[in-house]
Amino acid sequence: MNPSVSESLHVGIRCDATARGGTGHLVRQTALAEELQARGHHATFYGESDVEWAGRLVARLGLEFVTPEYDFAAQVRADAVDAVMIDGYPFPAELGEALRASGLPVAAMVDGDFGRHQDADLYVDQNLGSEDPGLANWLVGPEYVLLRDVVRSRRDVARAHSDPPRVLVVFGGSDPFGGCPVAVELLASTGLPMHVVAVAASPERRAELEAIPVVAGQSLEVVGTQDDLPGLALTCDFVVSAAGSSVWEFACLGIPTGLVCVVDNQVIAYEAATSELAVAVGQLDRLRHNDAARDAARSALARLVEDAGWRAQLSEGGRRLVDGDGRVRVVDAIERLVRR
Fold first, then answer.
1. What residue ranges are annotated as transmembrane (predicted)?
2. Shortest CA distance to 61 belongs to which of 47, 45, 76, 48?
3. Which residue, of 148, 256, 298, 300, is most buried by count of CB atoms within 10 Å of its CB?
């Protein structure tokens, strides 16, 4: 029998957080777990992680990573799970198929074409520009963005206004493709006064960042991976970031953002976001080697540094688009799915 409306649910979350694959899937799923817990439900993370701060993120929820077994459907059944959320592109469709065959409802996160192969009862694509099939079991658009408490609780906090501008550069919790040093070098090459706060996701990235020269009027502060990235972002005038899940956090907080497209699964979000709420800096591979791409990026970054009015417009646009209640709508849908 399906749980009644008054009973608490147990939702299993299948996602990984690794230095190679990134941590964005986990970040948005901690938001889902927070909403579940706020309603008196329970969540269990099933996955692998080799990123230290990812473990801390989960631990703050009173949880830990549980290693997924070969027969995952049997494992979650034994754990009395009522539904499973799948968030990760490498997971085969057979994962969802086996869970559904065992009688468990399945939800799956989708990013454009990535993740659409999964077999699920409910699909969530929080990206701008994604194709909406128009079906009842598809939740598409930024109204379904999953945001954590540290973002939602600060939606009305005033942003910083510094002179010279203070700029945060961050490329996720692992920066596997080395985007942060590329972006910092481009900022410095504008020659404009600014204070750059760069997040080094590894000792290798720290060494690369600390070797970047700055000119008079510029300063560079290299910090480690942040447990509270939104809090740090609110001390800055704008952010330069990969086009991953953090873009929604910055938009909700009204922090102007310049985006770099790092990998293929970011293309749809990058193109849509830079047409509506963020500034296109470029694609990472081209920013390394293509003079025209580097010149265009340098021009966009210079305008972000110099044009406070433009930054204010970007701030308002982001706040209008992302209201912070996406996770409420997604958990509503999961509850309906389990109790149908």
1. none
2. 45
3. 256
Going by C-alpha positions, the residue among 80, 84, 78 that lies closest to residue 97 is 84
**Edge-to-edge, what's the strand order for the sheet holding 138-140?**
65-66, 42-46, 10-14, 83-86, 106-109, 122-125, 138-140
Q: Which residues of the chain have pLDDT under 70?
A: 1-6
**How far apart are alpha carbons 142 and 144 in whole angstroms?**
5
C-alpha distances out from residue 254 to 31, 157, 196, 273, Å = 19, 9, 19, 14
Domains of the chain: 10-147+324-339 (3.40.50.2000), 152-321 (3.40.50.2000)
292, two tokens: 């025209």
Give the model's pLDDT for residue 22.
85
Cα–Cα dist 331/147, whole Å: 12
Render 107-134 in DSSP notation, one character per residue.
EEE-BTTBTTTS--SEEEE--TT-----
pLDDT at res. 172: 85
Are 89 and 118 spatial neighbours (Cβ–Cβ below 8 Å)?
A: no
Q: Identify the residue whose tokens are 């990969």.
A: 242
Residue 305 CB contacts under 8 Å (≥ 6 apart), including other chains: 164, 165, 167, 187, 190, 192, 194
23, 175, 194, 250 from 244: Cα distances, Å? 10, 11, 25, 11
In which residue are the tokens 């481009």 written?
186
Two structure tokens written together for 159 = 């942003």
DSSP 278: S
Cβ contact 112:102 at 8 Å: no
Residue 74 to residue 85: CA distance in whole angstroms: 16
Q: Is the distance from CB of 46 to CB of 14 less than 8 angstroms? A: yes
Does an H or E element contain 14, and which?
strand 10-14
Would you say 164 and 238 are in contact if contact means Cβ atoms under 8 Å apart? no
- Identify the pLDDT of residue 190: 98
263 secondary structure, DSSP code: S
